[in-house]
């Protein structure tokens, strides 16, 4: 009978060579299985065939008492795929982990800013300065389109020129998996981008050693990075007096929440966000319901 250690090594070789998993993922599997095999060794179990659903269930229960749900879920997946491999390779007759499920993760609601908070952030950049005009364009684009920060930083000048000259054209964004979508460009974002292109981008471009088609530039004349965009947003939030942690996704979440609060159809918001499934977008309906509950509690005489 094959030992647990030998079975583990075979499995790790399999996921590395046959499934092409990254070195970091394989290392994570190794750590998870080391913990699992230590648990089994303490119970005198050294071969794959000796493991039963009882041991797997006890391991998960013990782990759940000491670890966060997300960590437990990852380890359970490692254990399940390990035993699945053993069964498929004929190392065992059955899969003792087949009926063991990871703990259900709590659904975290995205944090949306209020309309007033967003307005203060968008008004924070000093539009008399070159970098302030760029920052204003970045912020207005993020909130005005609901795009991911990588999508906005990846825009080229030519890709927004059509939207500026033909308001009905919209901006073409390249999302996850190379999926394209077209989103409208609102008047505030269009004005901010136009001001930036005329009054700021030429000066920033002069600092660069070579020409770049990028829309948003840093002070060296190169494409603005996601990390720099993150820093712009945090500076704007600090200037606006907002103490909550604000990120590019905060503006994306706020975009979706404010649309739904205003009566937008869920399917429309799904398309604007570039979600492949409406189920991903439905989390924002929970946010709006919570908002309605807060308003109801504060305003209705018999709500409390």
Q: What does it look like?
A:
By secondary structure, the chain is mainly alpha-helical. It has 2 domains: 4-88, Tyrosine recombinase, N-terminal domain (DNA polymerase, domain 1, Orthogonal Bundle), CATH 1.10.150.130; 115-298, hpI Integrase, Chain A (Orthogonal Bundle). Helices cover 60% and strands 3% of the residues. It has 15 helices and 2 strands. It has helices at residues 4-17, 23-42, 53-66, 69-88, 115-122, 130-145, 149-153, 157-165, 187-199, 201-206, 226-239, 248-261, 266-273, 278-281, 283-299; strands at residues 171-174, 180-183. A two-stranded antiparallel ribbon has the order 1-2. The longest helix has 20 residues, at 23-42. The chain is elongated and about 75 Å long. It starts with a helix and ends in a 5-residue tail after the last helix. The relative contact order is 0.09. The model has no long low-confidence stretch (mean pLDDT 88).
Task: Briefly characterize the structure.
The chain is mainly α and 304 residues long.
Question: Portion of residues in helices?
Answer: 55-70%
> What characteristic shape results from the CA principal axes?
elongated
Overall pLDDT metric: 88
How many H/I helices? 15
Main sheet properties: 2 strands, antiparallel
Strand element count: 2
CATH architecture of the largest domain: Orthogonal Bundle
Query: How do the strands line up in the largest sheet?
Result: 1-2
Report the structural category: mainly alpha
Under CATH, the topology of the largest domain can be stated as hpI Integrase, Chain A
CATH homology superfamily name of the largest domain = Intergrase catalytic core
N- to C-terminal separation? Answer: 66 Å
CATH class division of the largest domain: Mainly Alpha
Unreliably modeled segments: none
List the secondary-structure elements in sequence, H or E: HHHHHHHHEEHHHHHHH
Q: Strand-residue fraction?
A: under 5%
Total number of distinct structural domains: 2
What's the Cα radius of gyration?
26 Å
């Amino acid at each position: 009978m094959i030992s647990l250690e030998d079975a583990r090594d075979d499995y790790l070789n399999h996921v590395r060579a046959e499934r092409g998993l990254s070195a970091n993922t394989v290392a994570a599997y190794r750590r998870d299985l080391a913990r699992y095999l230590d648990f089994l060794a303490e119970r005198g179990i050294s071969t794959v065939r000796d493991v039963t659903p009882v041991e797997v269930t006890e391991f998960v229960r013990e782990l759940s008492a000491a670890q966060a749900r997300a960590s437990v879920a990852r380890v359970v997946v490692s254990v399940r795929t390990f035993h699945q491999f053993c069964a498929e390779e004929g190392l065992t007759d059955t899969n003792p982990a087949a009926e063991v499920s990871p703990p259900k993760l709590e659904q975290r609601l995205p944090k949306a800013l209020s309309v007033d908070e967003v307005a203060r952030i968008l008004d924070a950049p000093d539009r008399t300065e070159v970098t302030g005009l760029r920052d204003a364009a970045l912020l207005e684009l993020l909130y005005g389109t609901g795009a991911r920060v990588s999508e906005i930083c990846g825009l080229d000048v030519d890709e927004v020129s059509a939207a500026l000259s033909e308001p009905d054209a919209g901006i073409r964004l390249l999302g996850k998996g190379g999926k394209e979508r077209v989103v409208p460009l609102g008047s505030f974002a269009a004005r901010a981008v136009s001001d930036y292109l005329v009054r700021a981008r030429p000066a920033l471009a002069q600092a660069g050693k070579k020409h770049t088609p990028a829309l948003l530039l840093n002070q060296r004349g190169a494409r603005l990075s996601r990390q720099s965009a993150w820093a712009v947003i945090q500076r704007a939030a600090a200037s606006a007096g907002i103490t909550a942690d604000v990120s590019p996704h905060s503006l994306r979440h706020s975009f979706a929440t404010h649309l739904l609060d205003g009566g937008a159809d869920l399917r429309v918001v799904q398309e604007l966000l570039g979600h492949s499934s409406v189920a991903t977008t439905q989390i924002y309906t929970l946010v709006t319901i919570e908002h309605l509950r807060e308003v109801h509690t504060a305003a209705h005489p018999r709500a409390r």
